[in-house]
Design goal:
The complex is a heterodimer of chains A (about 290) and B (about 120).
Chain A: E1 2-6, H1 14-24, E2 29-33, H2 42-45, E3 48-62, H3 72-76, E4 82-85, E5 88-91, H4 101-105, E6 111-126, E7 129-136, H5 144-161, E8 164-168, H6 175-181, E9 186-191, H7 195-208, E10 215-222, H8 228-235, E11 240-245, H9 248-255, H10 265-284
Parallel strand pairs in A: 1-8, 1-9, 2-7, 2-8, 9-10, 10-11
Antiparallel strand pairs in A: 3-6, 4-5, 6-7
Helix pairs in contact in A: 1-10, 5-6
Chain B: E1 3-8, E2 26-31, E3 37-41, H1 43-46, H2 52-62, E4 67-69, H3 75-83, E5 87-89, H4 97-105
Parallel strand pairs in B: 1-4, 4-5
Antiparallel strand pairs in B: 1-2, 2-3
Classes of the chains: A alpha/beta (about 290), B alpha/beta (about 120).
């Protein structure tokens, strides 16, 4: 089972929840930080890094001696990563999405594969759990290409070690967030009952609900703000799986890089209960083969 | 043949200079010898998610102009225009296309040596 911990608004507690879930999960687990623009799960899980590799994307390199300026490549490219002017061809590798279309369509075979560095993928062990993260290269504008490579590694690691994975997703509801949740079995939305939290929570629900995956809510900083989130969840039949109180002790522990589930027996119980509810959610919504098939 | 392009909010010499390059409404191409004008619509670039400046540079390069007058040019468009040998006069917003052409002809438009906008603006 792959569980992604997502949110609309940033700073609602995705990493707090992901780290604490990892701490109480038990059994074989892989903790994955897919927030490649600003990974921080490692600050809480303190993994020992055992391996890393640099991730690249294939971008076009043009042999101008063979180019006839026919414009087949630049007409195909939706992103203007390759541009043909009269008697001139330019590439903008930072704009390339890596589809390889320009290389395939060039009638002169004048375009060969080059590389753009996307970032780094690291893995190791954090206690009894496996650990995996991506870190985007500073200056790289696109995170989904690196995220796809981290997810390929996730699949390899799960195939090798078995068990579950918990994904710490990037915030928001655009391509990076969608990329993080789209392959998971259960989506956990972490929010806070403030107006900003509620507004972005609705956006996240609208963005992820069409996937039809089991989804549940964790309300962080409970006790703050209004009850709009609770009413929305009731209307949409979105279960509230846990509430984490708005408490200075928790904020202090977080600021010191501690795992919240280890702060008190009560908080540990909150996450043990959350783990059970996530498993129930995955179980009850698991697709079954139709009996009449 | 001595042609220049001006980013424009409309098709004629009395329309306002569009301060944007990549996402300009269009370009008025002026033949400086005859003062004949031609309008190139840039609607296709305006709707692009990215690369509008590069596409706009392609459009005016194909029109055979030697110089561009506009408000702001970002780094990728600047690179494309420079590679195509097109000189760039910036910061010409808030005036008409005709006024921009006259300033250019009087020699008071300084040619840029770098972009004056961040990418994607």
């Amino acid at each position: 089972m792959i569980v992604s911990v997502a949110s609309g608004k940033g700073g609602t507690g995705k990493t707090t929840v992901a780290a604490s879930l990892a701490a109480v999960w038990g059994g074989s687990l892989l903790a994955v930080d897919l927030d490649v623009e600003e990974p921080n799960l490692h600050l809480f899980l303190h993994p020992s890094i055992e391996g890393n590799e640099t991730a690249h994307m294939t971008v076009p390199v043009v042999d101008e001696a063979r180019c006839t300026y026919c414009r087949a490549c630049s007409d195909l490219c939706q992103f203007k990563a390759i541009s043909v002017m009269p008697q001139l061809i330019l590439t903008f590798p930072e704009m390339c999405h890596g589809c390889g279309g320009c290389m395939a369509i060039c009638p002169e075979k004048a375009i060969s594969p080059g590389q753009r560095e996307l970032g780094e993928i690291s893995w190791g062990e954090a206690g009894t759990a496996g650990f995996l993260m991506g870190r985007l290269r500073i200056g790289e504008a696109m995170s989904p290409p690196l995220m796809r490579q981290v997810k390929a590694k996730l699949n390899q690691m799960i195939a090798a070690r078995g068990g579950d994975a918990i994904i710490d997703a990037p915030p928001g509801v655009s391509c990076p967030a969608v990329n993080a949740v789209i392959d998971s079995d259960v989506i956990i939305l972490v929010t806070e009952p403030t107006p900003f939290g509620f507004y972005d929570f609705k956006l996240a629900w609208e963005a992820f609900a069409p996937f039809g995956k089991p989804m549940g809510t964790v309300v962080n900083r409970a006790g703050l703000g209004t009850d709009d989130i609770y009413r929305f969840c009731r209307d949409k039949r979105l279960p509230i799986l846990a509430e984490i109180p708005f408490d200075r002790v928790i904020a202090e522990a977080y600021a010191h890089g501690r795992i919240i589930a280890e702060v008190s027996p009560e908080l540990r119980e909150t996450f043990v209960s959350l783990r059970g509810k996530i498993r129930d959610l995955a179980e009850c919504c698991r697709p079954r083969e139709a009996v009449h098939a | 043949m001595n042609k220049i392009a001006i980013t424009s909010e409309g098709p004629g010499l009395d329309d306002q200079v569009d301060p944007r390059f990549g996402r300009a409404a269009g370009f008025v191409v002026v033949d400086l010898d005859t003062m004949e004008t031609r309008y190139i619509d840039n609607g296709q670039s305006q709707i692009m998610a990215q690369g509008a400046g590069i596409q706009a540079a392609e459009l005016i390069a194909r029109a055979g102009v030697s110089c561009l007058l506009t408000g702001y040019v970002g780094p990728k468009a600047f690179r494309a225009l420079s590679a195509a040998g097109i000189k760039i006069g910036q910061n010409l917003e808030g005036i008409t296309v005709r006024e921009a052409v006259e300033r250019f002809k009087s020699g008071s438009v300084q040619m840029a040596d770098g972009p004056n906008r961040e990418a994607g603006r």
